[in-house]
Specification:
With 127 residues, the protein is mainly beta. The chain has one domain (2-125): Jelly Rolls (Sandwich), CATH 2.60.120. It has one helix and ten strands; from the N terminus they run αββββββββββ. It has one helix spanning 2-20, and strands at residues 26-33, 39-48, 57-58, 61-69, 71-76, 82-85, 89-92, 98-102, 108-117, 124-125. The protein has a five-stranded antiparallel β-sheet with strand order 1-2-9-4-7, with helices on one face. Strands 6-5-8 form a three-stranded antiparallel β-sheet, with no helix packed on it. A two-stranded antiparallel ribbon has the order 3-10. Strand 1 and strand 2 (39-48) form a beta hairpin. It is globular and about 40 Å long. It starts with a helix and ends with a strand.
Length: 127
């Protein structure tokens, strides 16, 4: 049991490290809960500088979030582009390619909650 727990923690750390590698973006993991069964619920803050973007990517589960600061253009494949501002919330279906771009001349900050398959990386780049 201890070995599985340590392996899961190491895997999650690598997933955060890989996700945080995108240039110009700061991601701060806040917590991870192994729930529901087979999934991790991860809470994090993502910050994108003015003019920057998260880059097209997917998650192996749903993402829901809340815009803390600034404005962003949220591009979700198959949906019209949305412009969100501080106080707005959003959700992204599992496995759907999406991107978030800082809108205007200010940085944006979101609080994201991910409920993802714990055997897969938190995020994967998309073409």
């Amino acid at each position: 049991m201890l070995k599985k727990t340590l392996l899961a923690l190491a895997f999650t750390g690598l997933a955060f490290a890989a996700f945080a590698q995108q240039p110009g973006i700061k991601r701060t993991p806040l917590q991870k809960v192994e729930f529901p069964d087979g999934y991790n619920t991860v809470t994090a803050i993502a910050e994108v500088p003015a003019g920057g973007s998260a880059g097209r990517h997917t998650h192996p589960g749903i993402e829901t979030g809340y815009v803390l600061e600034g404005e962003l253009n949220l591009l979700i494949d198959g949906q019209p582009e949305k412009t969100l501002k501080a106080g707005d919330s959003y959700q992204i279906p599992a496995g759907v390619v999406h991107d978030a771009k800082a809108h205007g001349d200010k940085a944006m900050k979101v609080l994201g909650v991910y409920v993802v398959d714990k055997t897969k990386p938190l995020a994967s780049p998309a073409p």
